[in-house]
C-alpha cells in the first residue's frame, strides 16, 4: 500500500511540476510581450471646428527583439493612423506609414515634424488638459496602451 501512496505522490508532484513549468513559460511570454512601453504622451489640441488631432509619444523597447507598431485604435475616434512628415521638394508633407519601428533595447520618439499618430473623427472635441487614450498594436499582436494629455502645440507653425 505504501508503494501506491508513493506512486500517487510522485504523480501529483510531477503534475504540479508540469503546471509550474507551463505557468512559468506563460509568465515569461507575458513579460516579453510587455517589452514596449509608451511614455510622455501628449495630443495636440484640435483646431477649432476640426475633429482630428495628432498624438506624440516616446516608445521604449526594453526587450531583445525589434518591434514595430502596425496599427492603432481609440474609443475616442473613428480612425487611428500611423503617419510621418517629410520634405518633398520644398514642401513638408504628411503621409501614412505601414509601421513604426522600435529597435531592440532602444526607443522611437514620435514628435511634431516627424513620426506621429493621427486620430481622425474625434467623437468629442478634447480641450487642453483632457486625456485621449489610444491602443497601439505591435507586429507580434501585443497591445500597448497610450494615455495622452491634450495640450497646445509647442511648435510654431
General description of the model:
The chain has one helix spanning 2-33; strands spanning 36-44, 52-61, 67-73, 77-88, 91-96, 100-102, 107-110, 116-122, 131-138, 143-151. With 157 residues, it is α+β, with helices and mostly antiparallel strands. It folds into two domains: 1-33; 36-151, Immunoglobulin-like (Sandwich). β4 and β5 (91-96) form a beta hairpin. It is globular, with a radius of gyration of 23 Å.
Q: Please tell me what the overall shape is.
A: globular
**Residue-averaged pLDDT, rounded?**
85
- Taking pLDDT < 50 over at least 5 consecutive residues as the criterion, the unreliable ranges are 22-32
- How many domains? 2
CATH names the topology of the largest domain as Immunoglobulin-like
Number of separate helices: 1
**Radius of gyration computed on alpha carbons:** 23 Å
The arrangement of helices and strands along the chain is HEEEEEEEEEE
| Beta-strand fraction estimate | over 45%
Instruction: Outline the biggest β-sheet.
Output: 10 strands, mixed
What would CATH call the architecture of the largest domain? Sandwich
Number of strands: 10
Helical percent range?
10-25%
Name of the CATH homologous superfamily of the largest domain: PCu(A)C copper chaperone
CATH domain class name of the largest domain: Mainly Beta
What structural class do you assign from the helix and strand content?
alpha+beta
Spatial gap, N to C terminus: 85 Å
